[in-house]
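Open question from group meeting: does this chain pack into something compact, or does most of it stay loose? Before anyone orders reagents, we agreed to write out a predicted structure and look at it together. Recording both the input and the output here so the notebook holds the full record.
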Amino acid sequence: MSGRGAAAGGETAGAGTAGAGTAGTGTAGTGTAGTGMAGAASGTGAGGIAGTGSTGVGGTGECVPPPSQGMCPSLCGNGVRDMCWAPTAGPCPAVMWTEFCDGSDFGATSCATRGFAGGTLICTATCLIDDSGCGECFALDASLVGCGPAPVGPMKPASFAIAATDAEVGLGLLEYDAADSATVSFARLSPALASIGVTVLDDHVAPGRTYPAFSQLAAAALPAGWVLAVVSPSDLSLRAMGADGGETGRAVVDTLPNDGFPASPFLAAQPSGGPLVVWATSAGLRASVIAADGRSATTPVDLPTPDVASYDPPTAAFVGDAFYVAFPVQTVPSAYALRLVRVGLDGTVGSPMDLYPGEPIFMPDLASGASDLRLAYAGPTTGVAADPPVTLWRRLTPAGQTLAPASQIAGRLIGVGPSFAFGDDTVVLVYQLDGVGFSISFVRVASDGSIVTLPHAVARAPSLGYVAARRGPDVVAAWLGPHGLQLARVTP
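Structure tokens returned:
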């Protein structure tokens, strides 16, 4: 299942709260409020972990104290956050600063204000804030039954993907070294998320980095193994593996043009056969059906996407005897619709159906494992595209007939799905900006659109991108946050 949310399957750059000053930098997060560049007085630094700034008097966007020095070296250690005149790293005179922390005095700053689920901040010997004691997982309960670091060692994947069977969870991992050479690996985990083994599929042989804002991996279970879809700057290829994780073969599905736009590949599993892979190029969406052994695929076909409305990842699900792909389109300016396309097991594409004309539908997600089409998506309750989006859900037949009308299942959001059928119910993951942190929650919806379980928080961090898969009675989510790759096991 490919990742959903702002950056599917890969790390999402954090976005700080509105403020003035320099954006927070790196893990230390030393953003300062003052005048000058837009930044985060308290929130997420640009591309880094949440920064906690002090108020600068007379400073500019370029005038910041060296992070290694701290604010007031001569006063640091007395247990009180002091103000002092301190030199700056920029071409500016000394400026009045307040220490970030001193001893146990953090002012109004906490793990929660820095975007985490909880935990305890640490004040360093130079009165800088260390958030390594902050946690990304919410407290365990009857639904959130496990949460913590993924058992994959020191790996720091740039892209990752997840799939599952009733017996195991599989993680696809793509790392880059300092020279931008890529390594693709596959980790197998037990139902309790303990490590079974890791297989290195490509050791520094895959082409270099493409578009880091998009995932380059998707994973799916096969009848007797696993398959990874891997996007490089030149092609979309497959890595087939047996049940033990060992590689059994590979194939190139599509060669991408030089101006290709390799958005995240999406794999829709088939219970007794190979999955459908959907991917994007600069010309639009393409699709191919992968063989049950994962070592070949049907000839790629173009989906009818000349009027695709956004770069949202496509969604697909296997229902009955075929795959169904859904994506938003804009037929004329300001006229939206949801396009539904049937793809047969032989790769043939049926006539497109444009559903719900005039209704803005974004980030659609079709639930896997259902006997009908269950659609979670972002859209305004008012039907006006400019209004804030909320999480909506509806149920329809493969022919596009409505079985349950649209109902709101969660509030404002920035990402929807993946979602999974649990009998007549549907479990939908929701990705939201919660103050200065990004949170993952799940909500359980009945077949008529009523809410069975209100949104239940799983994780919160200053920056994270996530993927998820169903394993037996559980949903397993993986995300890449400030503290590395994390996993959560939810029994919804």
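Observations to bring back to the group:
The CA atoms of residues 288 and 300 lie 5 Å apart.
The chain has two domains: 1-130, 144-490.
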